[in-house]
Specification:
This protein is mainly alpha-helical. It has one domain. It is built from 2 helices and no strands. The relative contact order is 0.03.
Length: about 140
């Protein structure tokens, strides 16, 4: 071959490689465009499906925050009510103890007398047992 032909062959090879490279770049650009569209579609679907759930979750978090704020605000009142109830119970207990003492004081001599008499009773196992008549045979 002549020297000029080698140059044309080289230029043809370069052109062919450039055409193949351009086709590959165009194909990659189209594939990336389809991939971007698919990603946008998926993002839109996810947002439309998750938006109601996220809104409900947000409302739930706000409700929980409100409830905890109310509980925290009511704690001093609850503590006061529990302390008052405990004081009332202690006061009532002291009143019952006094009433018991006042009511049992007149009965103490009677209880001592009964205890004294109880000391002289025979134990249950030493008492004579009554003799019961034998059962009659049925006719």
């Amino acid at each position: 071959m002549q020297e000029g032909n080698w140059g044309l062959v080289l230029l043809g090879a370069i052109t062919l490689v450039l055409v193949v490279q351009t086709a590959a770049l165009i194909s990659m650009a189209l594939a990336s465009r389809r991939l971007a569209e698919r990603a946008q579609t998926l993002e839109h679907e996810l947002r439309s499906e998750l938006a109601p759930s996220l809104a409900r979750l947000s409302r739930l978090a706000q409700n929980a925050e409100e409830v905890s704020d109310r509980v925290v605000a009511a704690l001093p009142q609850i503590e006061d009510a529990v302390a008052d109830a405990a004081d009332n119970i202690q006061r009532a207990n002291r009143m019952f103890e006094r009433a018991e003492d006042l009511l049992s004081r007149p009965l103490r001599p009677i209880a001592r007398g009964l205890a004294f008499l109880q000391a002289f009773r025979r134990p249950e196992n030493e008492r004579p047992r009554p003799v019961l008549p034998a059962p009659r045979p049925e006719p």
